[in-house]
Write a structure and sequence with these properties.
Elements: E1 5-13, E2 22-28, H1 35-45, E3 49-56, E4 59-65, E5 70-71, H2 75-87, E6 96-101, E7 104-111, E8 114-120, E9 125-126, H3 131-137, E10 141-146, E11 150-155, H4 158-163, H5 168-171, E12 178-184, E13 192-198, E14 203-206, H6 213-224, E15 228-233, E16 239-246, E17 249-265
Parallel strand pairs: 2-3, 4-6, 11-12, 13-15
Antiparallel strand pairs: 1-2, 1-17, 3-4, 4-5, 6-7, 7-8, 8-17, 9-10, 10-11, 12-13, 13-14, 15-16, 16-17
Length: 267
């Protein structure tokens, strides 16, 4: 019987308080296990994302899984991984770390209690949506576009973003990873608000979505004529993402707190 145990961490990302932001599980590994085991662990964790990382010559290989699928890009679980490396004494204040991922090499920098992620800028292209998109959201859209994997819907006000109740069953039939819904913020602390829905990959509503801000930052940067902005993701948990557009890169900043640690069977 294999009784080898592995440590894991649960980190609330894009927040400085437990029970806010977006929880991610993080599992440090010394070498990769097979994909079925990775998928099963993510299913067992039953959080929007579980991150697994393995050391390499230049930093770490990093992969992300929802309870249903592996994904190409995930902000909050990358930030959570940086928090875990800090907790393990492997990311000192002011230091950076490189993650090799399905979206290329992504860098994270620790600056005190805040972590900055260097991610690719993603752009919204005009797109004629299927009728079921607006039906499932039950809102009036100001503009509709699409990024690489997500639909992008701008609505007229923050209250529309906060009060909408999507039809998740219908949303899950769309050919996309998820749907970003956004508007300018009414609160002077923030430049824009958003929510993110991804039932097709097993996440009805993601609490705070770093990768969605790779679309949101360039979109709002043009409209607000700003390179540095603050976004608030208005999910029930809520979370703050500091963004900066630098050419074809977006810097995502946020805090993170370790909520829980534990051990699991290595299988």
């Amino acid at each position: 019987m294999n009784d080898h145990r592995l440590s894991y961490f649960v980190v609330d990302a894009f927040t400085d308080r437990p029970f806010r932001g977006n929880p991610a599980a993080v599992v440090p590994l010394t070498q990769w296990k097979d994909d079925e085991w990775l998928r099963n662990v993510a299913m067992e964790m039953n959080l929007s994302e579980t991150a697994f990382f393995v050391p390499n010559a230049g930093g770490y290989d990093l992969r992300w899984f929802t309870p249903k699928a592996e994904v190409d890009l995930c902000g909050h679980a990358t930030l959570a991984t940086a928090v875990v490396l800090d907790r393990l004494g492997k990311l000192s204040d002011g230091a950076s770390v490189n993650f090799s991922t399905r979206s290329g090499v992504l860098a994270a920098v620790r600056q005190g209690s805040r972590y900055q992620l260097d991610f690719p800028a993603l752009h919204v292209e005009p797109h004629t949506p299927p009728p079921s998109l607006i039906e499932s959201l039950n809102v009036t859209a100001r503009s509709i576009g699409r990024g690489t994997t997500d639909y992008f819907v701008e609505v007229e006000s923050e209250s529309v973003v906060r009060n909408m109740i999507p039809d998740f069953k219908q949303l899950a039939t769309l050919d996309c990873r998820g749907v970003v819904v956004t508007a300018r913020s009414d609160d002077s602390q923030f430049d824009f608000v958003s929510r993110f829905f991804a039932p097709a990959v097993g996440v009805d509503e993601d609490p705070v979505t770093g990768s969605a801000h790779c679309l949101l930052a360039p979109f709002w940067g043009v409209r607000l004529n700003k390179s540095k902005m603050v976004g608030f993701q208005a999910s029930p948990r809520g979370g703050t993402v500091y963004v900066e557009v630098r050419g074809e890169r977006v810097i995502l900043g946020g805090d993170g707190v370790v909520f829980a640690t534990g051990e699991m069977t290595a299988g």
